[in-house]
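Bench log, entry 3. Co-assembly request; chain sequences pasted below exactly as received.
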Amino acid sequence: MNLKTSFPKGVQSSEVLFSLPYDLNDRAQPVSGHLCVTDSEILVYLNNELKSRYYIDDFSEFKCEQLVGSSMMIGELKSGESIAFCIFRQQEFLRYAELCKLLDYYARTGRLITETPEDEPCCPKCGMPLEGAKECPFCANKTGLFIKLIKRVKPYRKYFIIALICTVFEQILWLIVPNITRMIIDDYVTPKNTDWVGFFVLCGLLVGLAALSCIPNSMNMRCSFKVALNMGKDLREDVFAKSERMSLSAVTKKTAGELIRRVSGDAAKLESFVTEKGKDFVVQAISLIALMAILFVMNWKLALLTVVPIPFVFLLTKKLFHTMAVRYTRVWRNMTDHDSVLHDILNGVRVVKAYGTEVQEIQKYTGYSLKAARACVRAEIVWYLTIPFAEFVMTVGNYLVLLFGGRLILDGGMKLGELVQFTTYVAMLYDPIRWFIHIPKEFSDAAVSASKVFEVLEDESSLKEAENAVESEISGEIELKNVYFGYREYAPVLKDITMKINKGEMIGIVGHSGVGKSTLINLILRLYDVTDGQILIDGRDIRSYAQKSLRSQIGVVLQETFLFDGSVLDNICYAKPDATFEEVVRAAKIANAHDFVTKLPDGYNTRVGNKGYQLSGGERQRIAIARAIIHDPKIIILDEATASLDTETEKQIQEALGRLTEGRTTIAIAHRLSTLSGADRLAVLDKGKLAEFDTHDNLMRKHGVYYGLVMAQRRTTKMRGQKQAAEV
Amino acid sequence: MSINEESFAADKLNILDCGRLKFTKEKSGFMTLETDGKTYNKVNLTRLQPFYEKTRFISVNYENDEKEFIEIGVIRDMKELSDGQFEVVNDFLEYKYYMPLITKICSIKENMRGSLFVKAVTTAGDKTICIRDWYRNFKLIGGKYLYVCDVEGNKYYCDDVEMRLDKKSLAAMEMFT
Ligand SMILES: Nc1ncnc2c1ncn2[C@@H]1O[C@H](COP(=O)(O)OP(=O)(O)OP(=O)(O)O)[C@@H](O)[C@H]1O
Ligand SMILES: [Mg+2]
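Structure output for the full assembly:
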């Protein structure tokens, strides 16, 4: 990171090793200042004048304190006093954090690293590091959205082309019709010609043409339908697959309702748009040009009259496009909010019932529903207020033609049949024009959906699979080396964790709530990548394993038990769909689930839909344990897996697990410390760091953090016991 | 002591008597608090409702040597502080929660990747604010309070969009809120 971004005026840059700007004073007023570091001093400048001077050697520690809207760089003097050097806004935070790291390293080791690696290339728009990408994945502007959409038709281009040809053919048929009408009028009706044969032939031709057009029409519909359905299916599947594959951190940023809308709503909209409008576009453009050509050839003066109002109409609709896009985005937002709320309320229906807040929730939902409806109305209303007017302006040309054409006939310059043919063509011309007038509406609506769909499709946040990811059997040795991790890079949850878990060991992780226990196992599962440091499994970086291969060898019971809609059997088989029934029962027995499942009326076929609410919390947990062990994982992770169970049942499961886990690495998290009595070693997390890592006995002897936890728990249990005794 | 008293003593909101507080600025950027003959160093102040109440319900807390969070109490309303004290406390809060006010929105552009580029006039000057995941980081809370957090972590706000922003800004914003 470049730590020499800006110098105070007139300061020699060769002595100054680092120089960063700061922009706030301690009264929250914007200022222009600099913090410079030489090989022995820290100099603070304000408005290019030296304000204070500190000696680096006087300090024992440097750190960056992140506040809410700003951050401070703080140094801890050896005397214990702290000094805030400067205050700056968050955009400088990462640089100051890096500087503090370097200075801190100096304070600890006496070596000052002055060479910092060059700045990583940054996105010119948002200023964030590009991380190897050519273009910032967040800021790259995505043009050619519709080209990309049309490309998706490719697999079905055969049908698409057939549909296209059929439509063009049909159009040509209709183009012949006015010609025949003219012949009927000019050759038979006006001169009162009684050559019935010719007359009937022409009439027959008219009917024949209409009948003939049915064939391409039906072919067209069949093919269009095929393309539409297939493309919609593809889009839906792709969006869904992609949203499943996105990294956990990207997915959790979107609500379930929002994703559902993208998978079903938006994909469906695009499906109809591309096939209908995409094909029509070609056809309508062709017929527009063809009709114009015919009109100009027939009578260019009259033709000019018809096209006079058209530019105005197009100007108007072009203006409308933007307005419509804004309004449709709003509709989309409101619809998404509506979906999210619906999803949320329905999922939380037990909480709603428990609190008796049905009416409140109904009102909340009605509010969102109303808002969505209003947004729709507001979007459409603009359209319906302007379009009739636009269409009227457009047809003004028609009246002009009638007026001047009529005079031409009266003056003998034109035959009636010709005028009828001409006006029929004009009327036909309005079809494609009307179509083009309406396109902004459809287009802006589809554009909103397209952008939402492609936002998901082109998300690049998924954890990168190594280039030649290995798929190998693991034996279960886990090693963490100086692991740092934070959900946000600058707010570390885990700091400098180093530990080695041997194959077949059972490790308990303990620590206060929120200390980062679940986070640690998220890292071992590689749901997130470490910020710094390394996690090795069998001596190999977990980033070099194929994700699927890695996770298929780990069995995990997460803190929140989630059961899918399906039978008990389906849920247990989840990690190993081809498991035999015996295997399922074995897993259930180990998890102590077999007995209660047997008592259920439908046995293993009992449906446990809707997250398994028909089951008790402990029953659900036991099914989750069965699910975690059925595929014979090499590593078993239990995050509060037995927290909802009574100690008796817990003990039974533990014994069964103990038999199973021989030779397997087990990592268990529990607040109830007795749960971890079987653990070989205990890792005690404290304030994000690994405070202690040893056997229970050693830790008790040490009288450290773990000892404190155990004593605190014993006291409360004892107190409770005494109280109960007193009450009895 | 009955079990109730014992376990519920902790849940009383300890409202501080502003007359007995004496805050002084520390070199560490935090405060020193002297109250009832006790002195606390490196005291941190926190707005409990940063969106709505800037000078009311301020939590006064510090971290002890074990890095445990300890709340001394809550200032119900900073108006009860004497003038000099108000200033000291307010200065700290102002830079801790430093957030330029958005006074005008010139234009908002969205790309198809969930990023927004907001050209705005703020009390810290003209800015193009780049926002990622704008569904979360560009929000109108309660129909009034505009909350903006840009890609670098800088925050911006507008406490009452209807009152503070002109028609054009509101129109530019309409699509995204
Ligand atoms: N997805 C997330 N995004 C941002 N922060 C998170 C996320 N998940 C957890 N955190 C934060 O990370 C910290 C550690 O959380 P973690 O779930 O690892 O705690 P824990 O030790 O498992 O606690 P508990 O014993 O209560 O389960 C917490 O402060 C939490 O607020
Ligand atoms: Mg947890």
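Chain A touches chain B through 49 residues (CB under 8 Å). The domain at 144-457 of chain A is CATH 1.20.1560.10 (ABC transporter transmembrane region fold).
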